[in-house]
Amino acid sequence: MHRTNGPISTPAVAGNDLFALGPDGQKIAVDGATGRERWRHDLVRDFSAAAPTWGFAASPLVDEGLVIVPTGGPASRGLLAFDRASGRLRWNAPVSKATG
Questions:
Q1: pTM of the entire structure?
Q2: Is 4 inside any structural domain?
Q3: What number of helices (H) and strands (E) belong to the chain?
Q4: Are the C-beta atoms of residues 78 and 94 closer than 8 Å to each other?
Q5: Domain count along the chain
Q6: Domain that holds residue 23
Q7: Are 80 and 68 in contact (CB under 8 A)?
Q8: Per-residue model confidence as pLDDT tens digits over 47-60
Q9: 31 pLDDT higher than 90
Q10: What share of the chain is helix, strand, coil (3-state, %, to 5)?
Q11: Coil, strand or helix: which one is 72?
Q12: Domain presence at residue 6
């Protein structure tokens, strides 16, 4: 478990929505006007994400109604795209092994 008081990545803001990814893989959406949590996912538990030694540090990307986060590791789903409003998984892009 990574010991910090908050995210080590930069949260993303879109309209009144704030999206943050914690170092342990907690993905959270917050209503910026009220501070209330809208939805949350545990990327390690729910999507077999591989937690880096230093913790998750990639910033969420908000685009076209989606919140996209990398999960890393061959056992994970690679990139995950969540519906911005509901948090429902919309698509994933698996990680493939590099060939050389």
A1: 0.83
A2: no
A3: 1, 8
A4: yes
A5: 1
A6: 12-93
A7: yes
A8: 888 777 888 888 99
A9: yes
A10: 5, 40, 55
A11: coil
A12: no
Is the Cα dihedral 54, 8, 77, 48 positive or negative?
positive
Model confidence at 77, pLDDT cuts 50, 70, 90, reads low
Q: At which residue do the structure tokens 């879109």 appear?
A: 14
Q: What is the mean pLDDT of residues 48-74?
A: 85
- Give the pLDDT score at 57: 87
Q: Is there a domain that residue 51 lies in?
A: yes
Instruction: Please report whether residue 31 resides in a domain.
Output: yes
Between strands 37-42 and 61-63, the pairing is unpaired
CA distance 4 to 95: 28
* Residue 66, domain CATH: 2.40.10.480
Residues 6+ apart with CB under 8 A from 47: 41, 71, 76, 77, 80, 92
Cross-strand pairs, 39: 29
